[in-house]
């Protein structure tokens, strides 16, 4: 994973339901809201692109300074997985992209399964925050694995 | 597509890329002009714009066309140079600051909603000063040497008619020394047409002198180039111009001057005509001519195949030239500069085709020369020309892109130009509706200069807003970025504007950090401006920032309080988020006829109480009254319909506050808000709607401040500190003082002295925990509304000394203390206890006696206390002694016996019923409900095992197993008693031997054996009845016997025993042959050095009831006879007579058969009969007296042989008939032949019960018990 990375899941009506700073760099307090701003603004681009492409994985659709936004648009539930990362290390980012992509296709069954589990959980109200610590650790582990 | 010239960019270009006319006035001219508050430049500027000049022009290729719009840019010679960077910066900053101040007025209004913004077709909301700023910015990079459209095309030399020697002045003015440096270093062509203007001030006198000078001028210079301009014709200086043409050109320095006051219409017309003539007759023809000449020149040198080859070769040869950038290389004489001038002139004369061809030509040249700045400049112009030609949008953008990136590449010197290029590009994109791309370009031109970046980013944000579909999130984000930059440049007003606009996007967003950031920053900035009220509005939004980290929360809260302090106002905020009120936790306890002894009692289900009180309370439903009894029914009906509380009694409200932050916050003055209305004492009970109506009318008398009028009700105030993330329940009370109607409207608290939060309860949201009477008919009455009735007596009850944790079996004396604080006495008390097994009501006299001692057995007054035998009233209600009336200040005490029956958690419910002596009160009776939770720990486990004594009839061996189950405490066993008259027990061996310490430590187990004897048999057998009766039921287990024996026949022990018996009863039928045991033990108090009181040991009683002494065998027998016989076998064999006592314990007549065998006892044919077979071979404890002969084994060995060494003599079968519960004796004879020890168990006893229906009991066969007979040889 890049040194700065912010992973978010956005549900319908642009409500963030999960947020995790998964970068390796020490977390900076003032960066947190900046990350939200960038990801939030990138939703405009996602919205634009959604009409033009059928791809689910949208790579580097937006950038702000050296931070890049990649998005995975899930088909069914209009939920978007967004990742903000820095592209300081080109190779690292490239391999990260491949890994994340692979993760989504192959191994990401774990991620998506967890995700689906959340959504299919009868106690889970769509659009409400994901508070499951199990999910949290899973996401962080996946983020670490793709270092 | 529309005409490019009518687009914003087109207008901008027609405005900005126009011929420049250089002005060189004398100081006297300026002085004359200043009479009008204007400079000369300002005076003529408004008339330099021609919307319909209509000048015929011919292109280089002789194509005629007419120029309609035209503009001249008048510039002082001193300004014809690249503006100073610092000065420019200052000026731009001033523009921004001014714009910020202008907007001051609407800065505090609410931002208009974003929807209306994006829907409006024209972006009025885009601040207008952007255009002005952009223009200023474009001008900041004018007069560059690499482009020609800023080069003056003509020069005006202006001399006043009052000047000395005007002719010489004219000559002096165009002195090369005073010319701008660009002329001198060769970038500009100094050979430009000069025009000589004589300005005459009519106030100075007639124009005679002026005409004279003009004639002189005409002689000296070319007569066509000389003009006379008369100004200030108005004498009084008060000419009003509507609209005043100079307003837009006015300089800031002289705001109060009446502009153009001396210029009458004639003057203006003269100026107009002068400028018009100058343009149409001189400048445009000159430019046209110049274009033609240059075009010919360029065609001659550069056009055509030969020239191109030559040019290419020539440029190749030049490649090594070190510094192609310097002006020296491209002087105005150079062909490149000439082409550039040609192109720019053509552009300015709207001959875009010619301009384009020349720019293209030049572009390749500069590229080959690597003159990047000039190349970029040409590319820029190409882009603009493409745009004006309205040809290829793509080409235009490509050129702009190239120009932009090339400018950026050359470093700092190209920055300004890059920005200008970008601005043009942006306008170009906007013109074609590509707002998103435009925003991207704006973002790119936001360079390092933070203030400029801020403006650019803000413009970018508006582009996102205008994009189709609008990109609101980008809009918001860029506004925030721009706001931050404004803030860095101390342009707080701009920053606030940007953020406020952004807020229209982010309002109510679930992106918490964004929301917090925006509100926090705006709040802080407003506070900076001193607008604390607005600041507070925003700061309040971020109070409950639970998702933020602790440091952020600290920061937020700190700033919040700082701003709060500065506002100096007191805020009352509804639903203040700090702390959060958990409305679902709200519970209100009101007491009507039911009163509660403790909070725990409140939470008990109503049904529990109701079942408990069933027998005591006069039922309302049962007491049906007829219509005649209406008067008495009215009030209870009303009580039934609304919540009732009693004046003077506290209404308890519990509500939970949750601190969402990780910091601890103190809140103070937590109190209820109540409304009171007095006119509600008597109301028609059957119309519930009028109840609420009347209540609302009565709110005139409402009051919220607890301090203002305490006569109506009193509120409690609580201060508390909520630790981070903590939820605290506040216990609040309101005490109504007067009859009427009270409504609990909400709760309020103080976060600080000037920040009061309150929360209004909405009746629908509240689920009241205490369900009142079933009020099906009356849904409209709020649960928060209470009818306050007249003050009533209210009993307060306390069970003193009731422990919360106790060991099982612990016996204590408690007392119930009832107090009445009212003047009105109460009477007719009744009480009921839910668990009489745990709590017993004692005789009032017990209160005075010494507790453990009173239990001790006394010789006299054995049955004195029997009058209060509660066992009689076990399931019913306890009535207090007749005439018990509790007055004020005289508490009533009632002793209670407490015994922890079984380990576990136990809820004890007590309810006391009392009636009020005053007949006039609304309620005739009330109940006091008390609830206590107990934790009972295990102490001793006692079990008994009874087996019949093999040697005696009606005697039993009792094994008592005691285990100390406590974790730490040791228990001293004190006494064991059999309860009831039927049995007596005694120790088989002394306690001293088996249990010397007397203390059972934690975890220790003890077994001891006792003998149990039926008193009935003992009575018949012996004469010592009286003694055994006294002692036989109690066994002292402690040795040393100094301590007294407790009397188990007296209350409370006997009472508790009764309940234990009831509780432990297993089978429904009463079995006579059972025995109950009571083990009394003591536990020493833990040694506590601080307590000086003499420690009384804790008394424990353990009851084990219904221990059955009978086995299931209906017939009992006992073989009796001599055990040891000395016999001389020399004479004969030995005959021994044995007596068998048979007892029939069943209720039927039994026929018993005794069969003796000579064979081995084990092989007796039991057959496959149904019925009883004794499977136990031996009694558990073989207490057969040991024989002193060691030959037992030999005897056994002998008996194992095939031939027994003894035979039963007499009849082998004896049959007897036994009446129910009777005993008989049968004699048996055994013959032995040799000395030894014999086991005489080889017989069977069979019985058959007549008339018995029980197949199990009906018949059975049993092996004989072992009976050892020892025969010794008699010497």
From TrEMBL, chain A:
In terms of SUPFAM superfamilies, this protein maps to: SNARE-like
What InterPro entries has UniProt attached to this entry? Answer: Longin-like_dom_sf, Sedlin
Q: Which parts of the chain span the membrane according to its record?
A: 103-125
> Listed GO cellular component terms?
cytoplasm
Give the GO biological process terms: endoplasmic reticulum to Golgi vesicle-mediated transport
User: What's the domain of life for this entry?
Assistant: Eukaryota
Q: Which UniProt key words apply to this protein?
A: Membrane, Transmembrane, Transmembrane helix
| Name of the protein described by the UniProt record | Trafficking protein particle complex subunit 2
The organism that produces this protein has a lineage beginning with:
Eukaryota, Viridiplantae, Streptophyta, Embryophyta, Tracheophyta
From TrEMBL, chain B:
- Where does the TPPC8 second Ig-like domain start and stop, copy by copy? 809-928
One GO CC annotation, please?
A: TRAPPIII protein complex
- Please give the Pfam families that the UniProt record associates with this protein: Ig_TPPC8_1st (PF24545), Ig_TPPC8_2nd (PF24544), Ig_TPPC8_C (PF24542), TRAPPC-Trs85 (PF12739)
Domain TPPC8 first Ig-like, chain residue ranges per copy: 606-757
What Gene3D superfamilies is this protein classified in? Tetratricopeptide repeat domain
Q: Which InterPro entries match?
A: Ig_TPPC8_1st, Ig_TPPC8_2nd, Ig_TPPC8_C, TPR-like_helical_dom_sf, TRAPP_III_complex_Trs85
Residues covered by the TPPC8 C-terminal Ig-like domain: 1124-1246
Name of this protein: Tetratricopeptide repeat (TPR)-like superfamily protein
Q: Say which species the protein is native to.
A: Artemisia annua (Sweet wormwood)
Q: What is the lineage of its organism?
A: Eukaryota, Viridiplantae, Streptophyta, Embryophyta, Tracheophyta
């Amino acid at each position: 994973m890049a040194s700065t990375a912010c992973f978010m899941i956005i549900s319908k009506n642009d409500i963030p339901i999960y947020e995790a700073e998964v970068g390796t760099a020490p977390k900076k307090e003032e960066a947190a809201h900046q990350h939200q701003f960038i990801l939030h603004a990138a939703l405009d681009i996602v919205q634009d692109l959604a009409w033009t492409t059928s791809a689910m994985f949208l790579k580097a659709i937006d950038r702000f300074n050296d931070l890049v936004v990649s998005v995975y648009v899930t088909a069914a539930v209009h939920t978007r997985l967004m990742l903000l990362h820095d592209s300081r290390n080109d190779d690292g980012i490239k391999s990260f992209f491949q890994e994340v992509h692979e993760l989504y296709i192959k191994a990401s069954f774990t991620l998506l399964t967890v995700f689906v589990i959340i959504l299919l959980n009868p106690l889970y109200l769509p659009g409400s925050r994901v508070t499951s610590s199990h999910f949290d650790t899973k996401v962080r582990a996946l983020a670490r694995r793709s270092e | 597509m529309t005409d490019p010239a009518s687009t914003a960019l087109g207008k901008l270009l027609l405005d900005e890329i126009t011929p420049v006319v250089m002005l060189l006035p004398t100081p006297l001219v300026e002085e004359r002009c200043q009479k009008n508050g204007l400079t000369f430049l300002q005076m003529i500027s408004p008339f330099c714009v021609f919307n319909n000049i209509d000048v015929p022009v011919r292109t280089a290729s002789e194509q005629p066309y007419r120029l309609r719009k035209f503009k001249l840019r008048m510039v002082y010679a001193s300004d014809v140079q690249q503006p100073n960077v610092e000065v420019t910066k200052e000026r731009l900053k001033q523009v921004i600051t001014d714009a910020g101040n202008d907007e001051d007025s609407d800065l505090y209004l609410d931002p208009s909603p974003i929807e209306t913004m994006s829907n409006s077709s024209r972006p009025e909301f885009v601040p207008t000063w952007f255009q002005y700023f952009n223009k200023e910015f474009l001008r900041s990079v004018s007069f560059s040497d690499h482009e020609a459209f800023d080069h003056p095309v003509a020069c005006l030399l202006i001399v006043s008619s009052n000047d000395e020697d005007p002719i010489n002045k004219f000559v002096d003015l165009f002195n090369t020394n005073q010319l701008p440096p660009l002329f001198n270093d060769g970038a500009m062509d100094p050979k430009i047409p000069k025009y000589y203007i004589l300005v005459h001030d009519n106030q100075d006198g007639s124009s005679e002198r002026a005409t004279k000078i003009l004639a002189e001028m005409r002689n000296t210079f070319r007569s066509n180039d000389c003009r006379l301009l008369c100004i200030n014709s108005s004498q009084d200086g008060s000419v009003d111009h509507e609209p005043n043409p100079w307003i837009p050109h006015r300089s800031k320095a002289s705001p109060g001057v009446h502009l153009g006051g001396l210029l009458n219409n004639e003057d203006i017309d003269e100026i107009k005509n002068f400028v018009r003539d100058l343009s149409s007759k001189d400048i445009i023809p000159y430019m046209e001519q110049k274009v033609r000449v240059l075009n010919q020149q360029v065609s001659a040198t550069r056009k055509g195949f030969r020239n191109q080859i030559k040019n290419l070769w020539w440029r190749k040869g030049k490649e090594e030239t070190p510094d192609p950038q310097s002006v020296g290389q491209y002087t105005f004489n150079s062909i490149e500069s000439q082409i550039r001038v040609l192109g720019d002139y053509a552009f300015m004369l709207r001959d875009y085709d010619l301009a384009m061809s020349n720019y293209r030509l030049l572009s390749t040249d500069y590229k080959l020369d690597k003159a990047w700045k000039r190349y970029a400049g040409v590319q820029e112009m190409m882009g603009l020309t493409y745009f004006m030609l309205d040809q290829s949008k793509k080409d235009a953008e490509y050129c702009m892109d190239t120009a932009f990136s090339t400018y950026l590449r050359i470093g700092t010197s190209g920055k300004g130009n890059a920005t200008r290029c970008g601005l043009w590009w942006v306008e170009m994109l906007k013109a074609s509706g590509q707002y998103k791309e435009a925003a991207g370009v704006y973002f790119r031109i936001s360079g390092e200069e933070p203030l400029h970046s801020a403006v650019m980013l803000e413009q970018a944000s508006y582009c996102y807003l205008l994009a189709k579909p609008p990109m609101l999130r980008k809009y918001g984000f860029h506004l925030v970025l721009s706001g931050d930059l404004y803030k860095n440049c101390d342009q707080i007003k701009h920053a606030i504007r940007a953020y406020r606009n952004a807020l229209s996007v982010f309002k109510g967003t679930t992106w918490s950090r964004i929301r917090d950031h925006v509100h926090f920053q705006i709040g802080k900035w407003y506070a900076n401006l001193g607008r604390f009220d607005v600041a507070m509005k925003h700061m309040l939004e971020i109070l409950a920032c639970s998702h933020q980290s602790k440091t952020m929360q600290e920061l937020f809260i700190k700033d919040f309080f700082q701003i709060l302090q500065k506002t100096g106002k007191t805020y009352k905020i509804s639903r203040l988020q700090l702390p959060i009120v958990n409305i679902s936790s709200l519970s209100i306890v009101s007491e009507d006829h039911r009163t509660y002894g403790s909070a725990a009692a409140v939470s008990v289900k109503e049904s529990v109480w109701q079942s408990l009180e069933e027998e005591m309370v006069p039922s309302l439903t049962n007491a049906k009254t007829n219509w005649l009894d209406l008067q008495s029914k009215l009030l209870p009906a009303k009580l039934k319909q609304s919540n009732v509380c009693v004046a003077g009694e506290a209404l308890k409200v519990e509500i939970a506050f949750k601190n969402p932050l990780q910091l601890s916050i103190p809140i103070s003055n937590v109190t209820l808000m109540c409304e009171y209305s007095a006119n509600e004492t008597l109301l028609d009970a059957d119309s519930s709607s009028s109840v609420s109506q009347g209540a609302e009318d009565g709110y005139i008398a409402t009051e919220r401040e607890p301090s203002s009028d305490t006569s109506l009700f009193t509120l409690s105030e609580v201060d508390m500190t909520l630790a981070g993330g903590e939820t605290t329940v506040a216990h609040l009370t309101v005490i109504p003082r007067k009859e009427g109607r009270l409504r609990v409207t909400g709760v309020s608290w103080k976060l600080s002295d000037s920040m009061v939060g309150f929360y209004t309860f909405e009746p629908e949201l509240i689920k009241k925990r205490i369900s009142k009477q079933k009020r099906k008919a009356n849904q409209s009455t709020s649960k928060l509304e209470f009818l306050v009735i007249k003050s009533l007596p209210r009993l307060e009850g306390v069970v003193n000394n009731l422990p919360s944790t106790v060991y099982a079996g612990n016996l204590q004396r408690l007392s119930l203390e009832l107090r009445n604080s009212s003047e009105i006495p109460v009477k007719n008390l009744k009480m009921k206890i839910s668990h009489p097994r745990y709590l017993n009501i004692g005789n009032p006299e017990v209160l005075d006696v010494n507790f453990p001692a009173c239990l001790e057995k006394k010789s006299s007054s054995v049955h004195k206390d029997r009058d209060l035998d509660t066992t009689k009233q076990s399931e019913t209600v306890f009535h207090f002694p007749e005439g018990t009336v509790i007055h004020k200040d005289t508490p009533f005490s009632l002793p209670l016996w407490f015994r922890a029956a079984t380990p576990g958690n136990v809820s004890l419910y007590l309810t006391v019923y009392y009636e009020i002596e005053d007949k006039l009160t609304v309620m005739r009776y009330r109940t006091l409900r008390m609830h206590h939770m107990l934790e009972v720990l295990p102490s001793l486990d006692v079990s008994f095992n009874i087996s019949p004594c093999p040697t005696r009839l009606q005697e039993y061996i009792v094994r008592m197993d005691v285990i100390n189950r406590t974790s730490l405490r040791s228990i001293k066993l004190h006494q064991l008693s059999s309860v009831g008259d039927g049995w007596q027990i005694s120790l088989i061996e002394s306690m001293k031997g088996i249990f010397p310490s007397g203390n059972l430590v934690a975890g220790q187990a003890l077994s001891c054996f006792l003998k149990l004897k039926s008193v009935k048999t003992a009575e018949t057998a012996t004469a010592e009845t009286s003694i055994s009766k006294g002692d036989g039921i109690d066994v002292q287990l402690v040795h040393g016997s100094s301590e007294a024996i407790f009397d188990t026949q007296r209350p409370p022990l006997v009472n508790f025993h009764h309940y234990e018996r009831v509780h432990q009863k297993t089978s429904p039928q009463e079995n006579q042959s059972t025995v109950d045991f009571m083990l009394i033990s003591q536990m020493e108090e833990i040694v506590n050095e601080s307590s000086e009181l003499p420690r009384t040991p804790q008394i424990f009683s353990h009851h084990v009831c219904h221990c059955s002494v009978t086995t299931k065998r209906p017939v009992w027998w006992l073989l009796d006879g001599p055990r040891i016989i000395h016999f001389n076998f020399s004479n004969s064999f030995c005959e021994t007579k044995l007596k068998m006592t048979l007892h029939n314990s069943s209720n039927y007549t039994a026929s018993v058969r005794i069969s003796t065998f000579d064979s081995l006892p084990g092989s007796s044919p039991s057959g496959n009969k149904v019925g009883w077979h004794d499977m136990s071979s031996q009694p558990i404890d073989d207490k057969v007296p040991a024989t002193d002969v060691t030959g037992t084994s030999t005897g056994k060995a002998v008996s194992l042989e095939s031939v027994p060494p003894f035979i039963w003599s007499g009849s082998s079968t004896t049959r007897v008939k036994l009446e129910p519960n009777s005993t008989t004796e049968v004699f048996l004879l055994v013959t032995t032949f040799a000395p030894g020890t014999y086991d005489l168990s080889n017989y069977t006893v069979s019985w058959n019960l007549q008339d018995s229906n029980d197949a199990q009991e009906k018949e059975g066969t049993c092996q004989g018990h072992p009976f050892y007979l020892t025969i010794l040889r008699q010497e």
